[in-house]
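Supplementary Data S3. Sequence and structure tokens for construct A.
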Amino acid sequence: MDGRWSLDALYKGYDDPAFSADAERMKALNAEYDAFSNNLSCGEPKEILKQALAMQEELLALMTRLYSFAGLRAAADARDEESAAWSGRLLLLTATLPLRMPACASLSPCCRIWTH
């Protein structure tokens, strides 16, 4: 053992296919959620909210797992340029995550229940 903790429970490395798949899924889900929240219609509020919460839950899980891996790798070695780059990329992506229903009340009277 070289004195470092193992992050294998998260990912084996940045070249791990699971890391790449999760990063791509997060990017795609972020875009899907953005489109979803910007195109609300007067559907069944309960179903719209259920769908939004499911997407948010998946986004949060992916964000936590990816950012934890990159952050822990960077914390273990501040000279790790790959971890610094991934931390920056993930920070930019997560900074734009729509983790609440933007302008929901103005898009549909059916959605006003979420803001009151």
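Construct B, processed identically:
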Amino acid sequence: MPSLSAVDRAGVRVLGLFEFVGALAAFGARAGVEAFRLALRAPARSRVMSISSATRSAPLILTAGLAIGVVLSMHTRASLERFRRGGADPGRPRDRPDSRDRAR
């Protein structure tokens, strides 16, 4: 198999770059067309969805949000209390001197 000259190797790289840029442009164009196509279908989609389905799921969504909020607040409180006590070593009492607290 003959080896390629420097010009041929550069040409292959440039053609690969052009191929990549072209594929990226085609993807962007398809994404733009689909975005407008989905926006035009929104009124039809809103007619299909009824308000009754949203009202039936609202209590479940509210309950799940409340539970997640309670768990996050409990976790945050525990973390803040641990930070106030001394940071990285929560088992060390604050009134006992540490090697970092000794005079030099």
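Residues 7-49 form one domain. The radius of gyration is 31 Å.
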